[in-house]
């Protein structure tokens, strides 16, 4: 009996661990089973969770659990951790900062890793069978974008952050043949132009909170913890059955 139980538990452990992984880069990480990124002393809610919301709507929904809008300085620190081709991201209300990195065949860039970590908020590929003038499915255009800001100039406007992975765009060339255009990696911190009630297509809201700032909201139970509870339960059940059988005998 015990051999069967332990064999089953081992199989369950292997299956669950295969589905859980850690996405991490330079002090920021997210368990694939969670929608919270941890880094820089903060928890960041994945941007795709609030996709299509306004700042007001997101705060109404999440502020009670300790979430607040990411500030200019917090977003700057995040971008400087990933760099995206530059190491001098800084916080200014009415200035747009950007960085372009050439296309590469690899899909392991820090841009791609960032999108995996914070969630994809927009993508586009070819929708027609001809596949002209759009991004091909093997290397589509993907983006992770969010509204954030501090409104330090008190004009009621907030900023946008965006990270785009590189892509291949198919078009009809001058030679009369299909050609592929390489679209670069891109990271931008836009100037402030979004209001509290505005929604921006393909964008979420960058929400942060201090780590463990909301004890009333339990963090996702880790796979090892869950399996420990399952294992103890199975062992207890087997022990009880063994006692019962001994007593009956």
TrEMBL record:
Transmembrane ranges, per UniProt, are 219-239
What this protein is called in its record is PEP-CTERM protein-sorting domain-containing protein
**UniProt source species:** Alishewanella jeotgali KCTC 22429
UniProt superkingdom: Bacteria
Signal peptide residues on this chain, from the entry's feature table: 1-20
Q: Which UniProt keywords apply?
A: Membrane, Signal, Transmembrane, Transmembrane helix
């Amino acid at each position: 009996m015990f051999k069967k139980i332990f064999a089953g538990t081992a199989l369950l452990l292997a299956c669950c661990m295969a589905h859980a992984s850690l996405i991490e880069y330079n002090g920021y990480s997210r368990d694939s089973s969670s929608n919270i990124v941890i880094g820089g002393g903060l928890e960041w809610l994945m941007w795709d969770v609030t996709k299509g919301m306004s700042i007001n709507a997101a705060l109404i929904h999440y502020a009670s659990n300790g979430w607040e809008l990411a500030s200019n300085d917090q977003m700057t620190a995040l971008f400087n951790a990933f760099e995206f081709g530059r190491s001098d991201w800084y916080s200014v209300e009415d200035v747009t900062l950007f960085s372009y990195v050439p296309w590469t065949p690899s899909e392991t860039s820090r841009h791609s890793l960032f999108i995996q970590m914070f969630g994809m908020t927009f993508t586009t590929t070819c929708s027609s069978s001809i596949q002209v003038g759009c991004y091909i499915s093997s290397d589509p255009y993907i983006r992770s974008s969010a509204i954030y800001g501090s409104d330090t100039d008190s004009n009621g406007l907030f900023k946008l952050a965006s990270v785009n992975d590189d892509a291949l765009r198919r078009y009809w060339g001058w030679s009369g043949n299909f050609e592929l255009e390489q679209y670069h990696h891109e990271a931008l911190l836009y100037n402030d132009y979004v209001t509290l009630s505005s929604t921006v297509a393909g964008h979420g809201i960058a929400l942060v909170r201090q780590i463990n700032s909301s004890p009333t909201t339990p963090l996702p139970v880790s796979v090892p913890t869950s399996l420990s509870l399952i294992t103890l339960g199975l062992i207890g059940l087997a022990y009880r059955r063994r006692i019962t059988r001994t007593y009956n005998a």
